[in-house]
Design a protein that fits this description.
Layout: H1 25-37, H2 40-47, H3 51-65, E1 70-73, E2 76-79, H4 81-107, E3 114-119, H5 121-138, E4 143-148, E5 162-168, E6 180-186, E7 189-194, H6 196-202, H7 222-230, H8 247-255, E8 261-263, H9 265-274, E9 278-279, E10 288-289, E11 291-298, H10 305-319
Parallel strand pairs: 3-4, 3-5
Antiparallel strand pairs: 1-2, 5-11, 6-11, 7-8, 7-9, 7-10
Helix pairs in contact: 1-2, 1-3, 1-4, 2-3, 5-9
Length: about 325
């Protein structure tokens, strides 16, 4: 029988901690992603790897451990009972590694590292930009890289550290999800706004008359539908009016006299002060709450010093 060489793998020895079995980390990372994402291709996209590489990692991990981690049903993968227990512990371990790494970077020698924050454009331009400038003045060790975008960041894939956007009460999506944590940053009152000339023409109208007015929408009519319903009007069918896709474009169109937009003080405070827009005040109407601006981050980064400092600062500003 040949003698083992110095390079041959040693069998685990429970009496010797040096021989504790640890699978290759790349395989563990692939396994965690597949279990989290529910499939090879989604996990590969999240890890920025070829799906064949991820598939090979899973196969090698199962061979290394000598157990099946997934049930295979055609092209679908489903964790086995043992795989589910293993995934829960591996997910926690990887999250702890990430948490420990970010804590170390936030507290030692990397204080100038930027936080990546994605936010809906209107809220970013009209309110958040000023708050971040004040935050960085008070916290020179923390910098914030702000990206205005209508696309929510894939926080689990680490596209950003924080995502802020408006979530309606009556239409999807909802904030948060598996591996994420959120807090309501602001719950604004929503008003109808128009330029002074159009607002004057509508001053004596009724809420139902708004259905005949040019109403300006973002990506759908759900905001106007909810606002009208809370003001006693139940529209039937789709509400007419152009889609502007972005809140700041709808507000710009209202400023030019193209119609009536829905907005909050966060978006139109400057316009109201300058008189370029006014609230459309009709008998029987009122400002209403339709949803929440949510501050969302990964659960494992919730207590990161930089994220905690920014979250507390923005909550205080929004409440003030």
């Amino acid at each position: 029988m040949p003698k083992p060489t110095d390079n041959a793998p040693s069998s685990p020895d429970a009496s010797d901690a040096r021989h504790t079995p640890i699978p290759p980390f790349a395989a563990l990372r692939a396994f965690e992603a597949v279990g989290r994402e529910g499939g090879i291709r989604k996990a590969a996209a999240a890890l920025n790897l070829d799906h064949a590489v991820v598939s090979r990692h899973i196969r090698l991990l199962e061979e290394w451990m000598g157990i099946g981690l997934f049930h295979r049903d055609g092209g679908r993968l489903r964790l086995t009972e043992a795989g589910g227990r293993f995934h829960a512990r591996i997910s926690g371990a990887i999250a702890e590694i990430a948490h420990a790494t970010t804590d170390a970077m936030d507290n030692d020698g990397h204080r100038g590292r930027s936080l990546k924050l994605w936010c809906v454009p209107g809220f970013a331009a009209q309110w958040l930009t000023d708050q971040i400038a004040d935050f960085e003045a008070l916290h020179p060790d923390h910098r914030v890289e702000l990206r205005p975008t209508d696309a929510a960041a894939d926080l689990l894939a680490r596209e950003a550290d924080i995502d802020i956007r408006f979530y309606g009460d009556d239409w999807p999506p909802s904030p948060g999800g598996k591996g994420l944590r959120f807090v309501a940053l602001a719950r604004p009152s929503i008003m109808a706004v128009a330029n002074p000339e159009m607002a004057a023409r509508l001053a004596q109208a009724s809420p139902a008359d708004l259905l005949d007015a040019p109403l300006l929408h973002e990506e759908h009519d759900e905001q106007w539908r909810a606002w009208l319903r809370l003001n006693g009007v139940a529209p039937a069918g789709r509400i007419a009016g152009p889609l502007l896709w972005h809140a700041h474009l709808a507000i710009a169109a209202a400023r030019r006299g193209r119609g009536v937009a829905l907005a909050s003080d966060y978006l139109v405070a400057r316009d109201l002060k300058q008189g370029t827009l006014v609230e459309v005040r009709m008998p029987g109407t009122r400002q209403v709450e339709l949803g929440t601006y949510a501050f969302v981050t990964r659960e494992d980064r919730w207590s990161s010093p930089a994220i905690t400092a920014l979250r507390r600062f923005l909550l205080a500003r929004a409440a003030g």
